Every structure is written in structure tokens, then in C-alpha cells.
Amino acid sequence: MQNFVFCSPTTFVFGKDTENETGDFVRKFGGTKVMIHYGGGSVVRSGLLDRVKASLDEAGIACCELGGAQPNPRSGLVYEGIEMARRENVDFIIGLGGGSAIDSAKAIAVGVPYDGDFWDFYDDKAEPENTLPIATVVTIPAAGSEGSNSSVITHEEGMLKRGLGHESIRPVFSIMNPELTFTLPPYQTACGCADIMAHILERYLTNTRDVEMTDRLCESVLKTLIEDVPVVLQEPEHYGARANIFWAGMIAHNNSCGVGREQDWSSHQIEHELSALYDVAHGAGLAVIFPAFMKYTLKHDVQRYAQLAVRVWNCEMDFQNPEKTAREGIARFEAFLKSIGMPVTLEELGAREEDIPAMAAKTKMGPNDILGSFMPLSRKDVEAIYRLSMQSNASSR
Ligand code: NZQ
Ligand code: ZN
Predict the structure, then answer these.
(1) Are 125 and 164 spatial neighbours (Cβ–Cβ below 8 Å)?
(2) Of all protein residues, whose CA lies closest to atom 23 belonging to ligand 1?
(3) Which CATH architecture is the domain 183-388 placed in?
(4) Taking the domains of the chain in order of start, what are their residue ranges?
């Protein structure tokens, strides 16, 4: 295990009716004028926005609001939010809704006190210094932004989707009422599941040895999803299953499961080009890319893939042929994604083979034009993974 510093200072307020405590928590964390930032309207329709406003009002805290953050949130609304927050003397931002609203709220929070363009932070040109405090009332288990130190925004100029990772954008508190997730359509529930699984696998596929403790945490998150997601697809108001999935989404991405190990993250970078070009849901893009990435990198560490297959997908270990076991695990993963309604090929996403070279050329690579660390990828490898994801597992086995 590697050395690490882990600080996850977010206060999580979990359970029924907890959104009514928003005002008290804002006061506790020193906010006096709040901007509530939300998405396309689900929080209006569910009455959540009104409940949060009532709670702020009861605590004597003034607020203004800005809706309209769209899935794969855009820079235009961030600029608008920054101006509004300055005009209204906002000192506290609440992201209300899904990862998109929360990420957009985080971008506003870093942008308000900064003289330059907030995009500098996403383009690795500057580091945030005086970020406004952010809190969330989250309505979908997926991105894990309620506990994470990251935010992902798409710049309309060039449709570049880029992430910022910085400790100052971890929420000071996050309110998580599983009942708020009852209204999620099945497709969004499944997209969220695919994203959570990907957050685990980006960490699980590592070259670091002696990380048994976090391996087991990762495996338990995956097993929880395999068990509970089919339950809520049948019974959307199953509180227990929704609650477990909600916490799984948080724990998968606040880095509890990833400390002390090298992490990969190439599938996320590869997926970002899909959501930037075709505006597909992030989780659906990952459902297509991740199995292809796994097939492509399988030979790099057959034992690790076989371990995953046995412990998570209940495959029988074939000691004579561990590669067979490893492949079976990936096939079961792909079959699970299919069974919950996810696409598993680029074609199903509406992507075109002729766009692959451009997507590979645009993918944000690491130092020396290399991506990831599990099996470091060149641009040629990235292109090959896009091509592999044109096919379903059935045709590649
Ligand atoms: O916009 P509204 O009307 O609220 O509707 C949303 C949206 O259409 C809807 N929804 C959310 N909660 C609902 C609901 N509908 C009914 N009932 C509810 N309770 O679901 C749709 C998707 O929402 P969105 O916020 O886009 O989903 P998600 O949480 O998956 O966020 C996706 C974004 O997060 C980024 C992704 O790249 C993508 O842009 N990510 C952020 C990360 C982070 N900050 O740490 C890490 C992730 O890897 C990810 O990259
Ligand atoms: Zn993700």
C-alpha cells in the first residue's frame, strides 16, 4: 500500500426528511446568503426546491436561485451563475439535484472569487484559492459529487469536457434523503449504477500490491449494486435498496475505496469524449467503454481480473486457465449492464465509427501523451478501445 493523506471533511446528513434541515446546516457552516443552483426542473416538480427554500427561510437565511444546469453541464450557465452570485453578494452555494447541478455549482463557487476565467481551473492554468463553501442536496446516486473533490464541465467553445480536482470543492455538507431518489426513471437509475461501478473499477484495476482492505471495500460496493439495483428497478420506492445504493454512490467516489493505491481513470477520459460529442449520459457511455477497456487490458493482469470475476461475479476459478475465468467475469459484467437497460456498444449510443479517430485525438491524455496507469495507453490504444466498443461481448468472445 502507498502512503496517503485522506481528508473527507463533508458532513453527511442521511435519511428521511433531512432536506428540511438544510437551513440549520447552512447557518452552522456560516452561510448568510445562499445561491441554490439546480437542473432542468425535477426538483421543482418534486417540491424539493420549495422545501429547501422553506428550510432556509425558517433559519433566517436569504437566497437566490438559478436553474437550468443540463446533464453534462455547460460553461455558459456557469458564467451566468458567477455574475449572479457576485451581484447578489452570495457567500454560500447549494447544488440541488444530480451531479450536473452540483458540478455546475462547484464551478460557480470557484469562479466567484477569481478575477480571471473560471475555465483556467479546468484547463490546468490556475488553482482555486478562495472557493465559496458548497453544500449539496443530492437526488441521484451516480456521480458521487456530493462527497468528491471534483467537478466536470463542458466548455461550449470546442465542446471540451474537462474535470477539476481540488480539495476546496468538497462539499461542507451533503443532504441525502433516499426518498428523493424514488422518482428516478429506470434509465437514470441504471446510468447511475454504471457510473458508480466505474468509479470502483477505476480504483480496483491497479498495479499497487497489498491493498486487500480496499479491494474488499470495492467488492462490497459492487455486490451491493448487483443486488439492489434490480430491486429498485422492480420496486422504485424500496427505501432500503435505494438507501444502500445512495451510500454506495458516495463511498465509491469520496476516495474511501481508493486510498493507498495507484488509480487508472482512463475509461473516464475516454468516455468524456462520447458525452462531449453525442451528449450521451455519462453512465451510459461508461457502460459501453468499461467492458471494452477491460477486454483490452485483460492480459495485463489476468489474476486481478480473475479475482474480480470470482469474488464479485461468482465465477468458478479455473486454475488451469485463469484467463477463461477473467473473461467470464467481464462477460457477466456486460450481461448485468444489459439486464438493467444499459447500452453496451457504441452503435447503441448512436456513435459513428468514422468519429473514432477524432475522439481519440481529442482525449485528454496524461504526461507524455500517455493515459492511465494500470496499463498505460497510447492514443493508438485509445482508438483501439473505441473500436472494440463498437462490438458486443458476444461477438468478441
Ligand atoms: O436536470 P433535472 O431536471 O434535475 O433531471 C435530472 C437529469 O435529467 C434527472 N434527475 C436527477 N435526480 C432526479 C432526476 N429525475 C427524477 N428524479 C430525481 N430524483 O436525471 C438526469 C441526470 O442528472 P445528472 O445530474 O446529469 O446525473 P449525474 O448525477 O449522473 O451527473 C452526471 C454528470 O456528473 C459528471 C458527469 O461527467 C456528468 O457530467 N461526473 C461528476 C463527477 C464528480 N463531480 O465527482 C464524477 C463522475 O465521474 C462524473 O464524471
Ligand atoms: Zn463517473
Answers:
(1) no
(2) 98
(3) Up-down Bundle (1.20)
(4) 11-180, 183-388
Pocket test for ligand 1, best of 282, 290, 364 (most atoms within 8 A of CB): 282
pLDDT attached to residue 393? 53
Report which protein residue has its CA nearest ligand 1's atom 43.
145
| DSSP conformation letters of 344-357 | -STGGGT--GGGHH
For ligand 1, atom 48, name the residue with the nearest CA.
143
Top mutation candidate among 36, 122, 137, 140 for ligand 1, by most atoms within 8 Å of CB: 140
Asked if residues 152 and 89 have their Cβ atoms less than 8 Å apart, the reply is no
So what's the pLDDT on residue 397? 39
Nearest ligand for residue 181 CA? 1
One CATH from 3.40.50.1970, 3.20.20.70, 3.40.50.10350, 3.40.50.300 for 11-180: 3.40.50.1970
**Cα(215)–Cα(276) distance, rounded to whole angstroms?**
32
Let me know: does 74 contact 101? Beta carbons within 8 Å: no
**Which backbone phi and psi does 63 adopt, to 5 degrees?**
-150, 160
CA distances from 311 to 1, 209, 229, 315, 329 (A): 21, 17, 18, 8, 10
0.90 cut: is pTM over it? yes
| Low-confidence residues of the chain: pLDDT under 50 | 394-397
